[in-house]
Amino acid sequence: MRTAKLAAHSFVKLRRIVKEADEKEGTTSTDGEELPESLSSALPTFMETFWSLSSHDITGTLDKVIARVLSDGGVSLEERGLRAERLRKLGQALQALSEATETATATSSGPQGTAECRRFEKAFVASMANRA
Question: Are residues 43 and 98 in the same domain?
């Protein structure tokens, strides 16, 4: 439910930004490198929505795969128990990697984050230019 609400919120915000951009189209510079302020401020919403939708899709897929792997009638109950244990270990390894990445990201320098944001902004502007 949270994913649908977030997607709807993002859509409304996007519509408002497009309307605002259309109204300002003739009054701003044509420099494609700079994002309008409203669009820049909306990027976190878009990224959060994208992440939420991706996360929901991945979680759903994993749930189906795990259910099939653990309920496979073609293998013994003992083998299914081993599969469950291995899946648990895999999950722990992925969580440890995620936590290590989170820690590394939190301690990384500010300019790198800014460079990544600029790269994303340029890609976003280019994709918008291709649609026009």
Answer: no
Same domain, 99 and 80: yes
Q: What pLDDT tens digit does each residue of the chain (132 aa) get?
A: 666 676 777 777 777 777 777 777 665 555 554 556 666 676 777 777 788 888 889 999 999 999 999 999 999 999 999 999 999 999 999 999 989 888 877 766 555 556 766 776 777 667 666 655
Distance CA 53, CA 49 (A): 6
* Residue 119, domain member (yes or no): no
Residue 21 CA neighbour count, 13 Å, CB half: 18
The CB-side HSE value for 42 (13 A sphere, CA atoms) comes to 21
The whole model's pTM is what? Answer: 0.54
